[in-house]
Amino acid sequence: MVTKEEIMKIAILSKLSVEDDEIDKLTKDMGEIISFADTINNAADEGVEFDNINNLSNAFREDKVVPSLEREKILANAKDSDDGCFMVKNIMK
Amino acid sequence: MKYELVAGFETHVELATDTKIFCSCTTQFGGEPNTHCCPICIGLPGTLPKLNKKVVEYAIRAGLATNCEIAEISKMDRKNYCYPDLPKAYQISQYDKPLCEHGYIQLSNGRKIRILRIHIEEDAGKLVHRRGDTLVDYNRGGVPLIEIVTEPDFRSVDEAKEYVEKLQNIMRYIGVSDCKMQEGSMRCDVNISVRPEGSEKLGTRTEIKNMNSITFIAKAMEYEYGRQVDLIESGEKVIQETLRYDDATNTTSGMRGKEDANDYRYFRDPDLVTINVPRSLVDEIRESLPELPEEKKERYINELGLPEADALLLTKYRKIAEYFESASEGTKTPKTAANFIIGQIFRTVETESEKEQFDVSVSAENLRELITLLDSGKIRMNLAKSTLDKMLETGKKASELIDEKDMGGLDEGALDELCRQAVENNPKAVSDYLAGKEKAVKAMVGFVMKNSRGKADAALAEQKIIKLVKNS
Amino acid sequence: MSESKIARLHEGLVSKEFSCRELTEKYIEAVNKDNGALNAYVTVTPETALETASIVDDKIARGEEISMLEGIPMTLKDNISTDGIRTTCCSKILEDYTPIYDATVWKILKAQNAVLLGKTNMDEFAMGSSCETSYFGGAKNPHNINHVAGGSSGGVASAVGGNIAVYGLGSDTGGSIRQPASFCGIVGMKPTYGAVSRYGLIAYASSLDQIGPITTSVEDTAVVYDAISQYDTMDSTSQGRKGESVRSTLKNDIKGMKIGIAREYLEGIRDDVRNAVEEAVEVYRSLGAEIVYFDLPSLKYALPVYYIIACAEASSNLGRYDGIRYGYKAQNYRDVNDMVKKTRSTGFGDEVKRRILLGTYVLSSGYYDAYYKKAQNLRGKIVQSFKKAFEVCDVILAPTVPMTAFENGHAVSDPVETYMTDICTVPVNICGLPGISVPCGFDNKGMPIGMQLIGDSFCESKILNAAWQYEKAAGKFKPAGFGVKL
What we know:
The complex is a heterotrimer. By secondary structure, chain B is an alpha+beta fold. Chain C has a single domain, classed as Amidase signature (AS) domain (Amidase signature (AS) enzymes, Alpha-Beta Complex), CATH 3.90.1300.10.
């Protein structure tokens, strides 16, 4: 059974905050989802390894420069930018 | 009680490819922020990585040059952690199937530093903190890196310094990186622990991150060794942690942040396919490797008969070795070129970076011409030396600086005559010599050299003068 | 029976029966009229559509040849990147994101002057089976707007089924093309993994995602698939179509074709759905196909294997939404880390967060081997069992969904129960196989039932051939009461 503490730990790894009033419901939901995932526990999986679909290898690119995009475009979707950089403002100052 | 230092290195080396590891943006250092970027290297939704073939080849090159085994099958994995300099919130790296494993670098004391693995990965962008704001520049994001991980085989700071220099040197020799520590194209993390001398058990280690100068590495290691010994001696415990070295205060301090959630959830990157390294490619790369500094040094000593000190100086940088090999080609003895380079030409390249560039005013061909004149007996050593100085000053060829009439040796009769004159014109030197001041003969030799315009064989002149004086 | 709408419109354009502008205006009008009810489009692009239309009209006027897809009004699921046109994944976190590059599939179609009417609704980040996890509310079923269009490509299916687009491109990670096509009574194909470039498709689960067509007929699916199945150097997993145009092999005789039925696919299926599929089996028998029955026991693990792998990849793929470079950014925060957490917690919906958490969990240290590694091994096992199946049959016939379109609001309550609706569609994604859903009947409320034809890797032509023959003999397509009347 998944515990609240485990949910909090994976929430931190996932960069998601969980409010106090959400944790019980989320733990219950996650418990159900994880026990659903647990149905593979007893499956025999010896001797099978999965590499990648279609077993592809060596998809390479040549080392040839293509001009980069204009900075204006690169920054176009950023909420805040300054001096040509993406910015996270210090809003506490 | 005496304590032994135990250290291991993780070194990040930026590869000198033209383009980034997963997109076609330039890897050039510097540039206005975010001008070396595209949808792929800023991690726009929907973009996919495509591996640069040269990155794989360079990593294999680095592996072969450090005696590694090259994997037949390799793959790329995602290392998941969230930080603003990492646009996808994962770094594409290699986890359990690195390209190279089980190599070593041998130190001058004979000890081998074992290399655990070399893997390829992408660099992160750069964060700048300005008045509390965080600014992000992704120009460096996606620049290819190799990470070279050693076993904890270092037992002294000197070994560490030598390793870093050697590694730097090898990478430059094989042309995979410029290893400019000040530009961050080579950065070291060091794991350090101490243990009572004679003990087999490893102590608790700390890791000093991201050092970019050999001096700092040495200072940081010395400081951290001292700090750990002090802790143990005062009955305290070393805590396993990640440290940062501050060169202003020469101390290490704990890094906060990344540490609290240290679970990278590595898994195979489904956007990239298996890397299959055919043995023919490994052979091809092995064939193309230049002679490495260590091999060169041994050859200079054993085959060219150079003293070890000379061999070391001449092989430290690839350009010097190439210069030496070109200048000494076809000459009577390589030692002559070595002496000229170390004795005179080195005076014009003072810093290490100048030595590395070895952009000197006398070309290797011109030095060879000078040595040929010397070898053929057309000029004597003294003249050769003074001519080389003039060549370094003016950049001119020896044949442009030496008068035709200065060429060619002095015939026996002329030398005898000059020696006779030297004795005759230096009565004080004669009497001094006879009174036991052997150095007085030098003045008479000087007379001969001056009056023969350097063409005389100084050693022969000295013999003749002594004979004349003794018989007088 | 359903004929090729694309071919008919193409004829009309070439013969100057109507101009591309007239056709486009007709569709724009229909979108304006019916999108309120269907909620299929989340962004409409009438200006660019009309611009393209005039280019096509000029070409026709100059007597130049036009391709089949040239000038045909269509739509893209809103997770396919379009340069200069916002692409939201129907998430608050990308609500105002405008790509600066084109997805490869859109690049291909744009070059052929496809007329883009707009971007269509979907479950947020393609995570859902009803389209109801969309930040913009779910798309409605054109056969009855009290029912869902299905998911995640619900908007494309609703638009195509409701004829406010001739065709559309969706994406299918665990059934997201086939399931809504089935719910809306139309055709949808998930191609072989690697046949169509994923470059520019906003990733849900990279090893499972694949773009494919949603159309009203098998022939239209073939036409669109022929156009988009090209090798793309930008996608390392891309291979393109193998072999000739699939459209040219559609009408081949299927006498002697071996149609396989895996018993497990028919377990736990609602009776009316099973009956409809069994009727289709009889149609195939009458067409001279040979029916082969076999077992696929590894299928019982397909659903948990799918969710573990999909969520693991998603947890990593969705890590990049941190508010810094694009998308929603929280306004009140203490520091960078707090900003990122608040951005993600507010920007993502509940289902997305649940899947990120599950994915993080199955990859985290201590759980990796028991979940992720094991799921990968079982994936290998399921791949093997399908390979074996294709030694005894040419195509596999199965239901697409165990039921028909549920009523609005039904799917949201129980996550695990909702996952179960994907049981018939996920095996195809796990194995990277092609699968097509074609209409095969209606339930007693008049909601469409779909059946699925599954082929071996890169054997799209076989399933399309079988689907076309069925459609010709007993096709169950019925236009819904919306959109352009042709």
